[in-house]
Amino acid sequence: MTTIFFQQILNGVIQGCIYALIALGLSLVFGILEIANFAHGEFYMIGAFMALFSITFLGVPFFIAMIIAMIGMAFVATVIERVVFRPIVGKPLINSMLLSFGLSTALANLALYFFKADPRKITSGLASYRFSFLGLYITGERIAILVLSVFLVLLLAWFIQYTRTGKAMRAVAQDRTAAQLAGINIRRIYSVTFAISGALAAAAGTMVGAMFFVNPEMGFTVVLKSFVIVTLGGFGKIKGVIFAAILIGLVESLGGGFISYAYKDAYPFLLLILLFILKPEGLAGGK
Amino acid sequence: MTVKRKPYILLCIIAVLAALLGIPRLFSMDYYLHIFVMSEIYAVLALSLSLLVGFTGQVSMGHAAFYGMGAYASAILSLRLGLSFWVTFWMAGLLVGTVAYLIGRLVLRLRGHVLAITTAFFCVLVTVVMNNWIPVTNGPMGITGVPSPSPFSLFGVHAVIETRAQYYYLGLLFVACVVYFLWRIESSRIGDAMIAVRENEELAKSIGIDTMKSKVLAFTISGALAGLAGAFYAHYIHFISPVTFTINESINILVMVIFGGMSTLFGPILGAVCLTILPEFLRMAGELRLVIYGIALIVFIIWMPMGIWGTIQRILLPKGPEKTQG
Description:
heterodimer; A: mainly alpha; two-stranded antiparallel ribbon; 74% helix; B: mainly alpha; 2% strand
């Protein structure tokens, strides 16, 4: 019983780290462009397909495939930002929501048209290494995923905290006009934000594709869960988002294992609604 | 409105009414009539959502949840308790209105994105319950055999609702009642308070409007009307399942409201009718149907953020940005 408990905790943490990657991108875009991007789940799906095809057709190893997917998706996300989102920056929120929803529908169905619905798996070549530790099992693949996602999150935190571009991003998030007055090229910041969010989503998609499956419809549930995480953690707050992501991973994993698996997907939403009853201002305090 | 325009408007209304009443004669094919009945259901859904989104300025992505709850409530009540549609219809509205009131009290403290997203979560939650609460909802299999409204006699007229044309007329009556009801609300002090909340919530509060009360009221009415629409849908299609009431449907209804134009009564109806008929043409595109829909939505939001009705008004009334507010 306790072994199962700790095994579920371990799985939950790994799942949470992947959620953190997705939710951080969503949160960045929200913080800087004030856009709720429902198509973020499709970034994650397309990234996973990029990695899958890199492995199938180019025969590259898992890590290289992930890097290819990240670069490719960063590019695609930048183009999408330029063409689709730029015209509506600063417009009412309902516009950006419906716009990104249209984008999500178009991308998901385009992928369905070309790639078909059958689930595929990304082979990392690491799944056969199994380690047991105090009665807990973990595959080499999951260790790699854990390490990689923690590394990417730390890299992002470093980038935003210490680089020039990162500081500019924070300035734009705080006050767009003031940042512009200070000479920040706001359009470049928008592009960079979307590139980062796309790359992180692609990395997460690759990891999930290795652990579970890749299919054109994988995006939408994930984007909703990421919104739960971002709402819980506080919009635009990195630490809050990471904390909330791991919490949601744990809630899903423990709830699915011990309460009822059928309602697994409902727990994050239930948790959030409960939280609003108890603490309307969110986990990380006021907005 | 000036007195001069009144006869013109009256003529228009008569023409539109005649056209609406004549539709079953013009389009006798079941397929067309079905599209018209669905347009009526969507018109009620879009109208009820526009009270919340257009008038009160609160974006909800959970409308399909209320729609679905109404459908399930009416179907289950009529099948389990053997009650007539004429009873379960109102019970569904009452029940969903109560739920909407409770949810509204809870979520309307939130604003903007957070409200929209939280209502989206609520919709997902309701779908999950529909799928998994099998003893009551029969899970993903859905509920079959929802009966038609029972025959009734009113003022010596015996009526049955069975054919599509009969559903069409019942639906027309339903839409007309909803339009009248919403028009009365929107031209009353309650409606003024709602508009005040939309325009500037802090200011509204400062002049003594109970903004929370206005918002909860809009949310409750909007939810109850969606519940009624759901009941109508269940007894029209005779079959309901969770896939009809997903968040995609919420967004679809929201798009109808935006597409037609918010904050008028005519806009949402126009949006509902257009967006029920247009996708039928897209069937030709086969598998790429939803791709085209998505792209069309993007283009629409970028080029016509005011909605069709807003754009028409801007063209017809080139003098100034006169907004119709009743």
